[in-house]
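Data availability (excerpt). The following record was deposited with the supplementary files.
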Amino acid sequence: MSASVDWDVVVGYADRLSALPGERLRVMASCAAELEAEVVRLPGREPAPFGLSELAGPAPQPARTGSSVEVPHDDALRPRDGLAVSVWVWLAPGAPAGERRALIATWGEAGADGYALCLDRDRRPRFEVASAGRRESVVGGEPLPLGVWSRVAGTLDREAGTLSISRFELAGGEERPVDARSTPSTVHGPGRAPGPLLLGAERRGAGGALESHLDGKLEAPTVLAGPASATTVAAWALGEGRGREVVDRGPLGLHGRCRNGPIRGVTGHDWRGDAHDWRCARGQYGAMHFHADAVDDLGWDPVLEVEVPDRCPSGVHAVVLAAAGREDLVPFVVRRAPEADPAPVAVLLPTFTYLAYSCERAAPALAGSERPEDRWAERQRLRSLYDRHEDGVAVYEASLLRPLTQLRPGYRCAQHGGPHGLAQDLILLGFLERRGIRFDPLTDHDLDAEGAAALAGHRTVITGAHPEYASERLLEALESHVRGGGHLAYLGGNGLNGCVSVDPDRRHVLELRRNDTQGLAPQALAGEHHHAATGAFGGDWRRHGRPEHRLLGVGLSAFGAGPAVDYHRVAEAGDPVAEAVFAGLEPGAPIGDRGEVLGGAAGYEVDSLEPRLGSPADARVLATAAPLGSGYSRWPDDTIEDVDHPLAGDGGPRMRADMVVRRRPGEGVVFSVGSIAWTGCLAGDDANPVARVTENVLRELGRASPFAGHAPADD
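Predicted structure:
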């Protein structure tokens, strides 16, 4: 099967990125026609004998976005002797208007029974109560201000026969009433037709879709009952708990469950600006941030179950979903069976980076992308970690449980038009297969879950083309591998730069909070630079004192979408390491003057050696690509000043790509090319200089004593 892509016809995702032989994985799909499926091995699309079981018939499935908290129905949440609900609310300065936004809502069938504290289309607080189809409401006189915490309270006083709405703000640490409205009421209490209580959304009737999603923060939602509302029914501590659980500190323990987020580790109404780590001032971080376009899990029904054969060799595979002349490929990795001998090489697929860039809206829109995947993601309100939510706040989380553009074999980058993500890394895998270099693939997620044990038995680890993001455990595993004598071939650019965390309770969710972005990407809000999942400080690893230069020898120095350039050798003739790396190349021959990514070997994002940013003394430059030209910009870094560099061209001293090798006594070899575009030169032609250098290095690293003629540095 082979057909064009149209995600409006058929699109899917798997419940995980990798599986072992003998395991099963499920595929969720939205399909508007009769569905056919098969499993193929990538990159060549050879049919693979996997078991496929149909779980449900094909049907279109909507993208269910929007965060909320759901509390199961309990009659206590519908008191008949008086009711008061209140919550602190914060709306970002960019919060959209024109739609109803629910704060606290519980409705029975068809909305005939229940109540809602919400914001109307003009952002005015509104309190509604209904019983047996009779509905009454009261509306505040002023819109909720943006960027300011307000406590909104709705009260049904049965004895006084009134329905009231009030708003309070903080002034000098004390609550100050700023708006209050009241109206006569003949409804004595909310009806009790069953229905859950929701925070940040509402549902009118059993089985109905969630609606009225909030874009904003909530803190300390409470439900009170009785005369004068003196009895606490529920008081949810939104900043506490883990994963999807929301803790109720009230007497009944009416705990809730999150859907599609929401985000913890965010500042609350008591945040004073003197704490920036939620673990050190939990009382100032009691809020959750809700978004109408958030996704934790699209929640599609599974249509297929895939059984990996017991003796399946490791590799990258895909489920091909075909319908009405269209197709979608859902890739996954088959890991090496535990009892099988490890291949000499492990290829670490940068799934953190795939996930960070998937479903990006801003860059494709700026580039005028017409790719069907990009257009579909935009229509479904999906976001990447390079986008902002609809209220203008940076996206902090990305989920695997949705279709991922960067995981598609045919995906092309909007900025440079060439392959990116898995599509580019499949070029590397095809090259390794053609050259007979045995490898086992694994993902960033696998390495984060298993640590250094995942690399045991592999002599060399090869990175993908764009391994930008790393968790602490992934970094530690790679560092441990090299310290223990294992080798690392960094065949990419912009690697191990950004700090991310995998949520231990939702391992399909990746968290990223940027700081010091200098306008290049959306930045986390003030006070919110520590990850909710692990407490890790966000931003680049350089801000942690762990620059990528320290392990790789090079670090990000320039980015752009201008034409790529080739490398030229700078190591002296007779240098034993250079002779091994450049064996078979004519002296002075350009290395990488054509390729799939911007037409060459050094481009898109490139790295250079910089001792003042952490490049160790044992790092040696073998070749350099410069100048990059006017289509590139320097990666901003305020820690050093530019000085003249002997290898610089017209593009500036740090705007270059350096090919580096480093080794210390008792440790493994690290070889770095410092360019995302490098592996784009491995497509098909195995005799070009980039292919020769790549194979020379990998063959050398496979020897018992690689670069034996080169004495490793002492420090």
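Summary of structural features: The radius of gyration is 28 Å.
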